[in-house]
Each structure stands twice: as structure tokens, then as C-alpha cells.
Amino acid sequence: MAETEKDQFEDDDAEDDVPLEKRKKIFSKELRCMMYGFGDDQNPYTESVDLLEDLVINFITEMTKKAMEVGRLGRISVEDIIFLIRKDPKKYSRVKELLMMNEALRKARKAFDEIKYATTK
Length: 121
Prior knowledge:
Blueprint (H helix, E strand, L loop, with lengths): L1 H15 L11 H10 L8 H25 L7 H8 L3 H32 L1
Helix pairs in contact: 2-3, 3-4
């Protein structure tokens, strides 16, 4: 088992060695929109977007690694993430807000589908 973990970490290191130009830009479009929404130029510098994307990816990676250590072996749950951010009031309240909004949307979709299904019969 130690050998497979070693291989896994070597793969992670290999991804870090890839130059910025060749990395897949996952959040580029969203980050540009967010930067504009927070007062930046409509077309922010590519370097700024790349820097923010690196920060976001590093944050997600670190949180995922920590969540893997906290929760059940090999699984991440919402509760694991909540546990990790419980001491940061801003993040905690935002996560709670998004989870409540997600639940409300799920209920609304279900009610809409039931109405739609009932009218088609």
C-alpha cells in the first residue's frame, strides 16, 4: 500500500512541474467574470487571472487533501468540508447559505416536476 501512495504523490508532483501555458485553464472564464464583478477591468490581465486560478486550484487541492484525512477513508462528504471551515465565519456562513439555497432549488424542481407530471396525465 505504501508503494501505491508513493506513486500517487509522484503523479501529483508531476502535475506541479507543468508550465502555466500548458495547464488546462479550468476556472479562467469564471474568474474573469468575478474579477469584473468586483471592480476589475472587463478584460483583466491574463497573468492576474492565471495567478488567481493557481490560488484557487491550490486551495481546492489542500482542502480536498485535508477532507480526505478527516472523513471516511477514500470519501469526501459535505460534512467534512463544513468541519474544515467551521472556524472561518465567512466561509462557514456562505457554505450554509449555498446548501440551504441548493435544498430550496431541489424542492422547487421536485414540485415543478410533480405539477408537470400531473398535468400530462
